[in-house]
Each structure stands twice: as structure tokens, then as C-alpha cells.
Amino acid sequence: MTAHIARTEHLDGTPNPAPRVDSEVGPLRTVLLHRPGAELKRLTPRNNDQLLFDGVPWVDRAQEEHDAFAEVLRGRGTEVLLLSDLLVAALHDDRARIAGIHSAVNERRLGIDLADALRSHLTSISPEQLATALMTGMTFEELPAAEGASLVRKMHHPIDFAVDPLPNLLFTRDSSVWVGDRVAITSLALPARDRETALTDLIYAYHPRFRKTGRAYGAHSAPVEGGDVLLLAPGVLAIGVGERTTPAGAESFARSALRDGLAHTVLAVPITQERATMHLDTVCTMVDRDAVVMYPAVRDNLFAYPVRSDGDGGVVVHDRTPFLDAAAEAMGIEKLRVIDTGLDAVTAEREQWDDGNNTLAVGPGLVVAYERNVETNARLEDAGVEVLRISGSELGSGRGGPRCMSCPIDRAALK
Ligand SMILES: NC(=[NH2+])NCCC[C@H](N)C(=O)O
Asked: Which Pfam families has this protein been placed in (predicted)?
């Protein structure tokens, strides 16, 4: 099946002036990706755990894999926006430069003198150079030469980070979420990803294409990560609560979405607090209007607290209900079809760890998945889902799949 992406460009090809996302599987018109760059070359066995990677990727191959991923999407008519391009464009606005530099210069780490020297250096360089510094980070030996002695510079190892690299920018899913015609800038839970929020925020605030985009959910509220947010159907959100998104984050997001009329039901879904299931989309993603691919080990113990508006600016939290039942009811369908990963417990666990559940729908019944998850992909095809396979041998070392590596900006409405 070839998903025809009904583009809403103007005749001159300018982008859709009113992008929106109301589902997980509507034909994907525009998506935000980040092609991994030199920030991945900062990973070493000494820091990969702290930087949330399970290995040290071969960067050139990871870039080839990512280029292939982007081409698969373009081949189905999806417009691919690259984060680095948007960041450079946004940084032509002095307000964006100020915000980006403010987020990167840490006086507590550098001391006042070195911080001032770094700030003036970053202020003096081009948008392209500044974007590189903000994404790749800077070591102490890469800091600009400064007059006078600096105890801080002398006492740090030259390859210590003066500005941390952001290797997890690759996972654009987590730092912003489109709900309807608004974008939520999330609040990432772990220090290694904290600064991604600031970069994502300045892109949406200052890039000409997004200046008019409304905001959902107050930025910098309690932690919510996009990997935990699924748009099950127009007006129906599921938010995983586990290793990253907290109950307070889920409540804040739910209140915002209900208040703004972006949802009528939000399902708060408790998930095990561990790295293998760090986000809801590591165990469950939608592959069709009424179908999910799900890790069988969680299927029977996945519950949800339905949250709805009380009609008076507050919310009503309903009793805990099996997730599949609560989702079907909120979506107004008889039931959700569940496609399991893997044939047996070991295969299922292996393929879940390798992001077999983390599919990206390009359209209803058409998904991108890692080729390595052979059994899960076969079961998807047995269930009538077309699978576009991509390599993830190096990309996967960051513990993320096609859904993690993508942030839909515009999906056509489901007919
Ligand atoms: N939506 C997702 N499942 N994102 C995966 C993010 C992986 C990243 N290394 C982290 O630990 O945060």
C-alpha cells in the first residue's frame, strides 16, 4: 500500500500554514528529525551511561542509517525538517541567540570570568557555528583563549565538558509534542537531556515557520517526555507515567490539554520505572486506526486512570481500568487490536529491548520499523500492516527506534 500524503502546500510550494497532529497514524505530512552529528563523537565508554547511550556508536554509519530513514519518509511524500537547519535559521534572530547562549553558559561550572569569556565568544560567532557549539558542546580545551589566568581552566582536564554535548537530540520525539494545532515543549527528566528543552523552545519561538504556533502545556512544568504521549485518536491522549514522566507531569499535561479543548479524555498509564520501558512508546505504539503493537509482557498489567474535564475548569480522575478497555471506550471503538512482539518470551524481550514496539506510522497500516526485529515485523505483516524496514544497528545504541527519532508536525486527518 502506498500512503498518498495529501499535501496542503500553497501552489508555490510553501509549507502548510496550519499544521496539526490529531492521531498517531494520520498520513504523515511533515516530521522533525535530527541527523546525528559530532555530538555522537563525544560519547566514550567513560560517559555513555551518563549520556543515556548503551554503547559508543559508529557515527558515520549512524548518519548513513539516519539518511536512509529520512529517505524512506520522503519517498512516501513526507516533508522532512532537520532540527539543525531549523536551529541555524532561528539563531539569525538575536533573541534566539541570547536564549541559546544563556542555556549553554553555566557559571556554576565555569566561574564568572570563564563564563563571561565564553558568553562573549558565543555572541561573536555565526549562527552556524553557534548551532554547532550548542549541539556538540565544548570541552575546556576548545574554549576561546582568554586573557589572564583561570584557576577553573587550569584545574579542569582539557577534555572535560565546559558545555555538555546533546547526543539525545537524535530523539526528537521527546522534547516537543504536537497536539492538535499546538506544540508542547516538554520538560525532560534527566540532566543529560535538560538543555534540549531550551533549544527546542527557541526553535519554535523564533523560527519564522513556527512563530505563530500556539503552545500547549506550560514549558518547564513537572517532567513530561514526548515518548510517553500517544495521540490514540482525536481528543484521546495516553500519557505513560514511569521512569521519565511523573504523575505531576501527567496531571499538568492533562489539565492543559483538557482546558484548551485539545482532548476530551487523557489516560494516565503507569509503566514500570526502568530503562527498558523508559517511555510508553517502548512497549506500545499505534500501527493503524484501531491497532497497536504491544510488548506482551505488559499487556495484561497495563492500566489507565481516565482523566476528564469536570466542566468547571477542573478535572475528574476516574478509577483505574485496564488500558485496552479504557482506550477503546475513549476512542469510541469496539476494541483495540493488539499485535504482540516476538513469538516467545525471550524473543519478545529481545525485540522489545531493540525497539520492536517503537514503530512510526506513516499512514494507517503503514509503519517504519527496525529491520532487526524480524519476528515482530512478521507479525505486523501477518496482521495486514505494511512494514518499511530500516537499519538501526548504530542508531539503536541510543536505545530509541523510529518513533523516538521523529516528531510529527503535521498529519492529515483520518478519514
Ligand atoms: N521516545 C523514546 N522512547 N525515546 C528514547 C530516548 C532514548 C534516550 N537515550 C534516553 O534515554 O532518553
From this structure: ADI
Q: Report the alpha-carbon distance of residue 97 to residue 202 in Å, rounded.
A: 9
Please name the residue that has the C-alpha cell 506550560.
Answer: 218
Is there a catalytic annotation at residue 404? yes
Closest of 115, 112, 166 to residue 144, by C-alpha: 115
Helix (H) or strand (E) holding 176: strand 176-179
Average pLDDT per run of 10 along the chain, which is 415 residues long? 43 69 98 98 97 97 98 97 98 98 96 94 97 97 82 93 97 97 95 96 96 81 94 98 96 95 97 88 97 94 96 94 98 96 85 94 98 96 98 96 98 93
Here the cell at position 253 is 499535561
What pLDDT is attached to residue 279?
Answer: 95
With CA atoms as reference, report the closest residue to 252 among 236, 234, 239: 239
Atom of ligand 1 nearest to the CA of 403: 1
Predicted model pTM: 0.95
174 lines ligand 1 (CB under 6 A): yes
Instruction: Give the domains, in start order, of the chain with CATH numbers.
Output: 19-83+167-411 (3.75.10.10), 87-163 (1.10.3930.10)
* Nearest ligand 1 atom to alpha carbon 54: 9
Q: Which three cell numbers stand for residue 313?
A: 475548569
Interface predicted TM-score of the whole assembly (ipTM), two decimals: 0.98
- The one catalytic residue in 88, 138, 170, 404 is 404
137: left (phi over 0), alpha (psi -120 to 50) or beta: left
Give the per-residue pLDDT at 395: 96
How would you classify residue 291: left for phi > 0, otherwise alpha for psi between -120 and 50, otherwise beta?
A: beta
Among 18, 25, 7, 3, smallest CA distance to 231 is for 25
pLDDT score for 284: 97
